[in-house]
Amino acid sequence: MKVFRSIIFYIGYFLAILVSGLLMLPVGFALPIRWRFRLFNWHNRFIVGWLSITCGIRYRVTGRERVPEGPCVVLANHQSEWETVYLQLLKTPICTVLKKELLNIPLFGWGVRLLRPIPLDRSKPSAAMRQVLSHGKQRLEEGLSVLIFPEGTRVPPGQRRRFNKSGAVIACRTGVPVLPVAHNAGERWGRHWVKQPGVLNVVVGEPIETVGRKPEEVMAEMEAWIEGTLNEISEVPRPASPDKAAPAELPS
Asked: What does pTM read for this prediction?
């Protein structure tokens, strides 16, 4: 049954990309940036709702009221594709730090380009880091929020990777808060294409102030909160020690 329901989900998933691309892209080109987010978030709402209908995956959000009104840097653990969709709805408008290769995917990548992401060339780590810092600061000064997955890549449930501090650096340089988010999406939408029914938990932490603080201090607080929260909401046991964590990559 799970296989059949997952097949139905992906049929709707790819049809949604096709329809959204053909209908929304021409309109999106003509809209101001904030209206583009509103338009394309209809696609994200459909994906989250369609996943619930077809695969029986519901989600519970704790702490939604903690999302600040103004721009912030959202830092979340990265386990699946689900959070890349949902976090666009949690805090909008928000620009995502992602691999530049994603922008070359027909329709999907073209639509993402309209939302002013921060693309990375991970074959050039030093240049990529400078780009994240400069473009991230620019987006925040324009009133947009920035989404970064500090682990740098998807990390399966039950594994751990040290966090990259680029998000904390951007937040400290601009004085905006860091909004930490923890979730166990990978336990429902994992790397295997078959989806697992059940409740997916998302917890939004208290915004972490950055004014007058060092990035290392902010990052340590954020990472400790995310890991502690994952210990509470994860069905798959977490690693006991950060010493066992794999090195961080550039944000994806």
From this structure: 0.92
